[in-house]
Amino acid sequence: MNTYNIFNFRRFGKYFASDLRSCASNYGLSMLLISIMGVIVYAGTVLMGVIFNQTWEGPELAFRVVTFMISMFVLIVAMPPKCYGHVTDKKAGSSWLLVPASRLEKYLSMILMCVIMIPVISAAVYLCLDAIICAIDRTCGQSLFAAAIGLFRKMAEATSVITADLMTGSPQAIVDEDAIISFIDQISCPWLYVDDFIGMVLTFLLGAVFFKSGKTVKTFLALAALSTAVSIIASPVMMKWGFDMAGIMETEGSVNGLFDLGIVRHVALYDTINDTIVNIALLLGIWFRLKTLKH
Questions:
Q1: Burial of 6 (0-12, 13-18, 19+ CB in 10 A)
Q2: What pLDDT is recorded for position 171?
Q3: From the CB of residue 23, how many other CB atoms can be counted at a distance below 10 Å?
Q4: Which of 64, 102, 123, 269 is the most exposed place for a label (fewest CB within 10 A)?
Q5: Per-residue pLDDT reduced to its tens digit, 139-183
Q6: Low-confidence residues of the chain, pLDDT below 70?
Q7: Confidence at residue 232, expressed as pLDDT on a 0 to 100 scale
Q8: What's the predicted TM-score (pTM) here?
Q9: How far is 76 from 81, CA to CA, in rounded Å?
Q10: DSSP letters along the chain, please?
């Protein structure tokens, strides 16, 4: 088989640019609104303060963090159906299938667009505007980007404090400081949460190309059903693990025993393996859905 028919860099570049323009046309305005939501919240908060309290004060950090998380969640949920939900429509989907690009090129463009391009641009614009506002108006406090860096740094610095507190307990509960440091270092790594974000995007992208109507609602319903099924299946294992932890906590040297558990000592590894398996399954699901898509 001619590899040119499977993937060609020049053709892929042209298709990706065309795909970007199409997605910008379908979702650009909504993406812009989400990206400037921090500015809108800031302006609304300041305006309300001036009108009702005669004071100029920007929104607190906690409120801005919640707003940012909600905005990014709305972006993840709404973007795939807007950009690629048309592939299941008879008229638009047929036109999409006839585009002179290979299935692999369309697939890679779709993944890059939804997982990297749009989320990164939107988050970057949001965080840059937030940083500019906080640099100009000191009542705004710390920027979101600086706060995130500070949070992970404080999680690492908390190791010594936690260790000191645990060491003041019973003489038998001697703490393995290395185990605690390793655990906190693992959970304080920002990259540990990137694959979780990717999994969320891929989930709603799969729903966008799989369901023909009610894409977002049906995706949520499918997630609820899957979560219920996994909880039922995994409940015996989780119960056993819970009893084991409770037994460890009741014995002498409980802290050492808890942090010596494999799932705690290698939490980053287990989380990465689990997320990688799920993300591969989602990627395969999207690929085979596009492969079997017919109108």
A1: exposed
A2: 43
A3: 21
A4: 269
A5: 888 888 888 887 767 766 665 555 555 555 544 444 556 666 677
A6: 1-4, 152, 155-181, 237-264, 295
A7: 82
A8: 0.82
A9: 10
A10: --GGGT--HHHHHHHHHHHHHHHHHHHHHHHHHHHTHHHHHHHHHHHHHHHHHS---PPPHHHHHHHHHHHHHHHHHHHHHHHHGGGGSHHHHHHHHTSSS-HHHHHHHHHIIIIIIHHHHHHHHHHHHHHHHHHH-GGG-S-HHHHHHHHHHHHHHHHHHHHHHHHTS-TT----HHHHHHHHHHHT-GGGGHHHHHHHHHHHHHHHHH-SSSHHHHHHHHHHHHHHHHHHHHHHHHHHHHHHHHHHHHSTTHHHHHHTSHHHHTHHHHHHHHHHHHHHHHHHHHHHHHHT---
Separation CA 120–CA 134 (nearest Å) = 21
